[in-house]
Design a protein that fits this description.
Mean pLDDT: 87
Low-confidence stretches: none
Number of helices: 5
Structural class: alpha/beta
Helix content: 25-40%
Distance between the termini: 13 Å
Shape: globular
Strand order of the largest sheet: 2-3-1-4-5-6
Oligomer: single chain
Length: about 180
């Protein structure tokens, strides 16, 4: 059984997107940022191109949450780095990003970390239901320019826009031989 992990800042809708993809409430959601404090693992059945499959989904604590001590935050960083580096089942990280946020220094550090460690990832821009079509077009160009060849998906966990495209992408990644 292979694994896909969901990372991103606090309060971008990682758990909501997991629930949207699987069409059921599997991951715990909260309106307050920083609710996920451990790496939560879920065994998930899903249908991919007419075949039923099973995967592991990992929901990581959000980064950038400031209401915790620096030592706890640094512990999370070490835990996540070790987990990602030493897990042969983890095929890809899905970096969930809120469409309304601007890419900042912390995001640049996360991008550098992924690239430095050669970690395969895709980018899911969430909450697109909260911006106008013209703003979304602008954001689409920005993210595609910033991320180059990284697969970018525009999704809404709320109304399920982009759900199938992202789910097929995950299925393609998991189905590929290592």
């Amino acid at each position: 059984m292979l694994e896909v992990g969901f990372i991103g800042r606090s309060n971008v809708g990682k758990s909501s997107l997991i629930n949207c993809l699987l069409l059921r409430k599997l991951a715990r959601t909260s309106s307050s940022p920083g609710a996920t404090k451990t790496i939560n693992l879920y065994k998930a059945e899903y249908e991919y191109r007419g075949k039923k499959s099973v995967m592991i989904i990992s929901d990581f604590p959000g980064f950038g949450y400031t209401r915790i001590s620096k030592s706890i935050y640094e512990g999370w960083e070490r835990m996540i780095d070790s987990y990602v580096q030493n897990n042969p089942l983890l095929k890809r990280l899905i970096w969930v990003f809120d469409v309304r946020r601007n890419f900042d220094e912390l995001d640049s550090l996360a991008l550098s970390w992924l690239n430095l460690r050669n970690i395969p990832f895709s980018f899911a821009v969430n909450k697109i239901d909260k911006v106008s079509k013209s703003e979304l077009a602008i954001r689409r160009r920005e993210f595609e320019k910033l991320l180059g060849t990284v697969p970018v998906f525009f999704v809404s966990a709320k109304d399920r826009t982009g759900r199938k495209e992202l789910l097929y992408h995950i299925g393609d990644v998991i189905s590929r031989p290592s």
